[in-house]
Design goal:
Layout lengths: L3 H15 L3 H4 L4 H9 L8 E5 L7 H8 L4 E6 L2 H9 L7 E4 L12 E7 L8 H10 L1 E11 L3 H8 L11 H10 L2 E9 L2 E8 L2
Parallel strand pairs: 1-2, 1-4, 2-3, 4-5
Antiparallel strand pairs: 5-7, 6-7
This protein binds S-adenosylmethionine.
S-adenosylmethionine binds next to helix 1 and strand 2.
């Protein structure tokens, strides 16, 4: 049986301890986030969620994409991350929600797209969680799984080997997304970025 509190505690402790210095660690990433957001194909008035938004680094680009009439939401499990987002003024670009992406307080099919940067590797039950994210996206809506560096560069930074069972290896991710009702439409894994795009099947 899934133990929500253990999952929550681990993530909240890990990211809670890192929240204050988060943006200073990665000062040059904004253009990469903006470029990835551009690939969601959002329009003026669109509705989008940043899942695992952290300090809200993607929120300005998401707001710029949907304009003042659009809806931008940022969801995260770690209160300290959301506090840093608000401190940086990113709550002006999107509404911040303290929530687990495993149980989103959102209506079914209410969004055009979900952007998720650096999230998927931290999900204890990725297939279930990707299915919950799918629930809130309309048929034909888009999911972007992004990271500002590629898998090999991230593994090197973290001092670990990249193994074939890596969740984000192309065949593994394609199968995982398919099992959760998403069709992967593109996959890029370069030193300077990781970006997988998927469309919600009808
Ligand atoms: C690597 S950080 C990335 C933060 C931000 N997206 C960025 O690119 O700077 C992962 C974030 O996901 C959040 N997170 C992890 N599991 C989550 C879950 N189940 N629900 C909501 N947020 C989660 C963490 O609290 C953390 O802020």
């Amino acid at each position: 049986m899934r133990c929500m509190s253990d999952d929550h505690t681990h993530v909240q402790e890990f990211f809670g301890a890192r929240a204050a210095g988060w943006d200073r660690r990665f000062p040059d990433d904004d253009p990469a986030y903006a470029a990835a957001v551009a690939e969601l194909g959002l329009r003026e008035g669109g509705r989008v969620l940043d899942a695992g938004c952290g300090t809200g680094r993607a929120l300005p680009a998401l707001r710029a994409a949907v304009g003042p009439s659009g809806v931008v939401l940022g969801a995260d499990l770690t209160p300290e991350m959301l506090r840093e987002a608000a401190r940086a003024g990113r709550d002006r670009d999107g509404t911040l929600l303290l929530t687990d992406v495993a149980a989103l307080p959102l209506r079914s099919s209410s969004l055009d797209a979900v952007f998720a940067a650096g999230l998927i590797a931290h999900l204890p039950h990725p297939a279930e969680d990707l299915r919950e994210i799918r629930r809130v996206v309309r048929p034909g809506g888009v999911l972007a799984l992004f990271h500002p560096i590629g898998r090999a560069a991230l593994a090197a930074r973290q001092g670990r080997e990249l193994t074939p069972d890596d969740l984000r290896a192309e065949p593994n991710l394609r199968a995982l997304l398919a099992a959760a009702g998403w069709r992967m439409t593109s996959y890029v894994d370069e030193d300077t970025r990781f970006l997988a795009l998927a469309v919600r099947d009808a």
